[in-house]
Design a protein that fits this description.
6-stranded parallel sheet, alpha/beta, Rossmann fold, 225 residues, 14% strand
């Protein structure tokens, strides 16, 4: 594939890191501490990528803003301190990111994680030097608002046509569309192939190694929509 892109912007949870089990457990822990019913894990996974406040508000429509913020605080306590669920990068991610960087791509992250949460993940994975810039929901506005992508474009000085947003959720694709940037879906995370296909500029791919191979010119799928 002769790619038109200079900048690859990645979502984190569900795209680079397999963190859904920990996320589900931390949602459950927060709800338990607030004496609320345990959320359905499938529903939690549906909302991965949104801000925590919005996700809790969707899971518990009757709560007020103060309760949503309390749940977020409890969630963060579990994430940073109490929950020890293992997280790993998806297969092929580390190798693929380094190969893409060496090929001359600029790599960035736009994530619904907090800055503190992303920094912790970067410490675990030692990927800090791979990315030229990262933006988090608590530094900007959460998906699907385009603010994080626009911030990244402003920082790099690149045009919208030179960037692509790569993610596992429709929120990632919607953010890309709202920013005027192409979106590229991967189906091994939170949302399924059919949902992503409707919004992805390129064919939805099934693993990270396949994605890296396409971007490195090792494969050439047809354009999506």
């Amino acid at each position: 594939m002769t790619t038109p892109y200079s900048l690859l912007v990645f979502d984190w949870d569900g795209t680079l890191m397999d963190s859904s089990a920990k996320i589900v457990n931390c949602f459950a822990g927060a709800a338990r501490d607030m004496s609320m019913s345990c959320p359905d894990p499938k529903q939690v996974k549906r909302y991965i990528g949104l801000s925590l406040v919005e996700a809790f508000s969707l899971l518990y429509p009757k709560i007020n803003s103060a309760q949503a913020n309390q749940l977020v605080d409890r969630y963060r306590d579990y994430w940073l301190v109490h929950d020890n669920t293992a997280m790993e990068l998806f297969s092929g991610v580390r190798k693929g990111l380094i190969e893409l960087q060496n090929a001359g791509y600029l790599l960035a992250v736009a994530t619904g994680k907090s800055r503190r949460g992303l920094e912790r993940a970067m410490d675990i994975t030692n990927l800090d030097d791979v990315f030229v810039y990262t933006r988090c929901a608590d530094q900007s506005r959460p998906k699907p608002d385009p603010a994080m992508l626009l911030d990244i474009l402003d920082y790099t000085g690149l045009e919208k046509r030179e960037a692509v947003m790569i993610g596992d959720t429709t929120f990632d694709m919607q953010m890309a569309g709202n920013a005027g940037v192409n979106g590229w879906g991967v189906s091994y995370g939170s949302h399924d192939h059919a949902e992503l296909k409707a919004l992805s500029r390129h064919p939805v791919l099934e693993n990270f190694s396949q994605l890296a191979g396409v971007l490195l010119g090792q494969d050439c799928p047809e354009t999506g929509v």
